[in-house]
Amino acid sequence: MPFQKKEFEASPLNRVLKQAAPGKDWKLGNGHEIEFDYGSNTSTEVRKYSVSTSFANNTYTPTLNGGTSYYAAGKLFKTVTKDENHDGTTSKLDTTEEFKDKQGRVILKRTYGESDLNRDGDVLDAGESSAQHDTYYVYDNFGNLTYVLPPLSDANTNKPTSTELNDLCYQYKYDHRNRLIEKKIPGKGWEYIVYDELDRPVMTQDAVQQPNKEWLVTKYDKLGRVAYTGLYTHSSTVSAQHTMQSHFNTQNNLDTELYEERKGSTVDYDDSYYSNNNFPSSGLELLTINYYDDYSFDLAGSAQPESITHAYSVSLTTNVKSLATGSKVKVLDVSPDKWISSVMYYDDKARPVYTYSKNAYLNTTDIVQSDLDFVGKALEVKTTHKKTGETDLVTMETFTYDHAGRVTKQTHKINSGAEEVIAENIYDELGQLTTKEVGNTVSNPLQTVNYTYNVRGWLKQINNPASLGTDLFGFKINYNTQDHGGTVLYNGNISETEWKTANTDSNLKWYKYDYDALNRLTSATSISSNYHLDKVVYDLNGNITKLKRQGHIVANPVATNSSHFNTMDDLVYTYNTNSNQLKKVLDNGNDTYGFKDGSDTTTEYTYDANGNMLTDANKGISSNISYNHLNLPTLVTLSSGNISYIYDATGVKLKKTVSTGATTKYAGNYIYEDSGSGDVLKFFNHSEGYVEPDGSGGYNYVYQYKDHLGNIRLSYKEDTSVTEVSVNEDFASSTSGWSTPTSSGAGINNTNEELNLTLVNRWTSTSKYLTITPNVPIHIEFDFKNGTMDKPVFLVREQINGVWEPGGDRDIIWDVQDGHHVLDLTLTGDFIRLYFEKGTGNDNGTATSCYIDNFKVTQNGLEIQEENNYYPFGLKHKGYNNVINGTEHPYKYNGVELNENLGLNIYETYARGYDPAIGRFLQIDPLGELINQIDKTPYNFAWNNPIAFNDPDGLCPDCPDPANATEGQIYTIDNGSEYIFNGTEWERHTVEELDEVVVVAPSGSSEEDSSNTTSEANAGTVSAVVATGIILSEVSTSVTLPSATAVGGAAATGGVVTGFLGVTVGPLLYMSYMYPNGITGPTYDQLRADPFFPITTQDPKNYPSQPSSITAPPNLTPPAYQPLTAEELLTVSAYINQMAAEHRKRRGSKKKTNDKHTKRRPGGDEKKKKPRKRGKKWKPRK
Questions:
Q1: Does the pTM exceed 0.70?
Q2: Per-residue pLDDT for 389 more than 70?
Q3: Which of 367, 447, 507, 675 would suit a FRET pair with 547, their CA atoms being 20 to 30 Å apart?
Q4: Cis (ω within 30 of 0) for the bond into 280?
Q5: Where are the alpha helices (DSSP H) in 413-499?
Q6: Which residue stretches belong to region Disordered (predicted)?
């Protein structure tokens, strides 16, 4: 059944009761559908919370009330969702219950699953096997979301205490203009947000900055675009948002103080080419600067080329109004000041085709020229990397596409070297990648990678581990099937994985997995007990309380030696009371390997006011880790030395220095190492791996196999000591190289462009001879079609030390049948004979024929450079295939850099550090408030399901991201709001019927229909007034409009800046964003001037594991909105109508609402209808 099907209830409400996915196992009636039940609450089902507010200093301060009584029966709508693993009984496992009030606001989300309620390391106590996990959402009288009470706060039993509120719950405060001004995230102190008169966030402060009097500042230009950002040090400590808001308001009373102006020939304010009108005008350290509209700023030595000529001749334009043209990003914590300067040049279609970036700190310059086709796809990308004192490194990449715009071929060339085929792709009819030929040349790739999928489009195999052939790696995923006794699963969780490599240990390996009803991994059983993950236990928030794994207990284990393995880790976690923060980990297993239990004190971990880990006694980190304002570590001191880091102001790591070792420098895509004798290039990336210098002036291409999570499993390269064999014959022009049979009546020819073979006598043949490299795999394939020959045979015979092997040792395909044949061999000889022969059939002495086509023989010397296999949560297997050939690559699990220096053993993602030994992040997720994360500990990794999810940047495992989204994809968030991806960004799509508020929007022309516009205001979470048709520049800033916060967002060209994305008005939703580290984007004034202002995005992460040729967009996530009150809706509606009337009056419209030929339109507007002429009959034109 390759289609999905829905079953609706028999009522006018037309609600879905069951939703069946494609596939026989999921078809309607098989018990593996998603099921929906609808009803209302009972009288003891949902506790009733409320908020009382006190108003002072323009701030509404909330107080949580209630929790002692329940909502009366029938007051809330209840929706029960049963996932595809539900057993069909009355069990509440695998179900989600959601309760909404009559305004459509989510009040409670309840799930069921096993949890360690008392955090004692097991789930054996009463109620723990199917515990309720309740997340309550509490709103104030204005509909603002004020409190979120996650499961660990136990809000369904008792109202959270003040300590539980501070340590476990989300809290929000709003001002008299309904703007979010203070918020508190579990594990963090209060954060403050200050706005200007245009409701744009201009200053923020977190709990660590507060005692240091520091504020992050954002300043805007006339069009509301972010001009520059910086760190401001105030004269005194501010203990509440309203204090700084009031101070800011008194400092900004003039219109000219709402924006900064560009300065041309006169350089102003710290060489920024901007004025300094707005507060603060002193005590500000600039961090980022953005330029628009022209090139009248410091171009850092760049010059605009007149044109770019590759496949197409592209002329560059100087007409760059409204475009981002450059940026400067400061390097933090260095003296004197150093900046990274970028300049963007555009073609006449306003597409960036030439970018220039100079890093004054690392003394590097990167120039990227892009040759685009007519629809904007890159055909050629030329990158020039310059470093002081080094020869320029020039790479040229070319891309070929099919009719659907999919990349079919990518090549790569370094300087004047030979062109390397990085990948050639083949897709099926559904657009799924099925074959990828990697490396070397088109006719002789190093590896052919095959992908297969199930009926739901889920990846099933990367090659075939049961039959590798010449493949180096095979990987298989089972979901609703099992090969090793695993539990079949239907909801997308993975039941089993298996893999095999063509390495020293080439035995099949596998894991089978178990999960709880909340989709959290509870165990992983390996084919060998040496690598079991025996048990994982969680509390209500998903904090791990116990983890047990088997593994090595000696320094250099051998997998076949059972004495080298035992219980490696038997971890018991202790947390601070009423907190997600780890206090202690006790290892009852081996203290030396896996998790290294280096301490046994009451408190082994401490944290700062932003939730960043300060000390780790087990790793010997006794001095507080130093962090910058981006919550990134700058100095880690261990007992054996220290590690220091340098970042730019967007959080990109530039340098890592180990006190007892080398210094690593990250120049974008190019990684250098200095061991005391100067910078040496170690590698740079391409889309299928990386390139490393060969030490002789050349370069080696290293390719990588990754699994479904992006974990790097096997790295390999061509072994140049092996002579390449490449035979690819289609017999279109000749049969050269094949011997002619000598008997009368026999022969060969290439009629019909095939090798047509006619033989008369038994044991006669046609042969081909090849020189090969011993002990290196050889691949043979051909198409065969029999004609009249009775017993055709194909043979391979090798010559060893000049002597042909005995006939009985030959490799033979007897009685060759019609079809495609493949033979993979590893031979000890250095010379072979390949031949097609007439066998012992009944046609001896008679001329009979057969036909051969597409005959291929390949032998490439492939060297496995490194293999990595992992426990769930990312700890590496030891004991097999651990030999490193060449230089070990530091990027491994999730494709992230592993820092093993001084025993740190931390994966350093873009946003925070991850410890695979304990399965937790060390800092809070900056996107912890998003979507499905708010009911989980902000320190969790991959939602505790590391088999299905990854988190390579430390920013939410599975949030909507344009880098992975497809146009038309729909995403539903916790509050019921639905978003659809339009190909560029996520847009609000649908809301509950009860949420619709119709706002009459006037027409921009008196002769056009006006249209009703729905404000999809999901009370408590959404505020939106869409005013189509009005002139945006006429919107008065004196109107009280709502604002909201969201986390996630986009970066303007030039990098992520520490600041805020302002509010937007027009055909877009009106909102304001606040991002974790501050991200730029279109703002209120900008969209007033041009609602379709283009914003160019780039990936701020830029970590080396990402190919430079493929710039992934940043994380863009559906924002969380705040609502309009009923009074505000009326105010805005009345204001829009007033503006419309004035607009019509100025345009000279003379509408008459009492005209007999008018008809009332649904939007409340009227359109004149011409009277129909009578008396004339229509006639066709002659």
A1: yes
A2: yes
A3: 507
A4: yes
A5: none
A6: 1096-1120, 1138-1182
Residue 133: Cβ-neighbour burial (10 angstroms; 0-12, 13-18, 19+): buried
Q: What pLDDT, on a 0 to 100 scale, did the predictor assign at position 255?
A: 77
509, two tokens? 């390996």
Residue 270 pLDDT: 74
Tell how many helices (H) and how many strands (E) occur in the chain: 5, 75
787-803 core/surface letters (b: 16 or more CB in 10 A; e: else): eebbbbbbbbbbbeeee
Q: What is the pLDDT of residues 410-429, one digit of tens each?
A: 999 999 999 999 999 999 99
Do the beta carbons of residue 935 and residue 109 sit within 8 Å?
Answer: yes
Separation of alpha carbons 813 and 796, rounded Å = 9
Percent of the chain at pLDDT exceeding 70: 80
Distance CA 288, CA 281 (A): 16
Distance CA 1000, CA 1050 (A): 32
Residue from 573, 605, 585, 595 nearest 122 by CA: 573
Tokens of 391: 């020869």
C-alpha to C-alpha distance for 314 and 345, rounded to whole angstroms: 12
First to last CA, the chain: 57
Q: Do the beta carbons of residue 233 and residue 204 sit within 8 Å?
A: no
d(CA 675, CA 664): 9
Amino acid residing at 287:
L
* pLDDT at residue number 877: 98
- Tell me which DSSP letter residue 389 carries: T
pLDDT in tens, 220-264: 999 999 999 999 999 888 888 999 999 898 887 777 788 999 987
- Strand 679-686 with 670-674, pairing: antiparallel
Alpha-carbon span 986 to 979, nearest angstrom: 6
The confidence band for 967, taking pLDDT boundaries of 50, 70 and 90, is low
Q: 1106's torsion region: left (phi>0), alpha (psi -120 to 50) or beta?
A: beta
Both tokens assigned to 225: 């675009």
| 666 token code pair | 């990250």
Q: Per this entry, what is the length of the chain? A: 1182
User: What gap in Å lies between CA 100 and CA 992, rounded to an integer?
Assistant: 11
In tens, the pLDDT along 575-609 reads 999 999 999 999 999 999 999 999 999 999 999 99
Cβ-proximal residues to 545 (8 Å cutoff; 6+ apart), any chain: 116, 119, 120, 121, 537, 538, 539, 572, 573, 575
Distances (CA, A) of 474 to 440, 714, 716: 20, 10, 14
Q: Which of 64, 183, 143, 141 is nearest to 1045 (CA)?
A: 183
Confidence label for 950 from pLDDT (cuts 50, 70 and 90): very high
CB burial readout 201-213, b (16+ within 10 A) else e: bbbbbbbbbbeee
For residue 113, count other CB atoms closer than 10 A to its CB: 24
- Tell me the mean pLDDT in the region 519-544: 97
pLDDT the model gives residue 909: 97
Q: Are strands 633-638 and 641-647 parallel, antiparallel or unpaired?
A: antiparallel
Tokens 């041309």 found at: 264
- Give pLDDT, residue 960: 61
Taken in order of first residue, the domains within the chain and their CATH numbers are 31-159 (no CATH), 177-292 (no CATH), 446-722+864-944 (no CATH), 725-859 (2.60.120.260), 957-1149 (no CATH)
Question: Number of C-alpha atoms within 13 angstroms, CB side, residue 681?
Answer: 28
- Any idea which residue has 């092996």 for tokens? 722
- Cα separation, 773 vs 8, in Å, equals 66
Location of structure tokens 């050639």:
424
Burial category of 708 from C-beta neighbours within 10 Å (exposed 0-12, middle 13-18, buried 19 and up)? middle
The conformational region for residue 810 under phi > 0 = left, psi -120 to 50 = alpha, else beta, is beta
Q: What is the 3-state secondary structure (H, E, C) of 746-806?
A: CEEECHHHCEEEEECCCCCEEEEEEECCCCCCEEEEEEEEECCCCCEEEEEEEEECCEECC
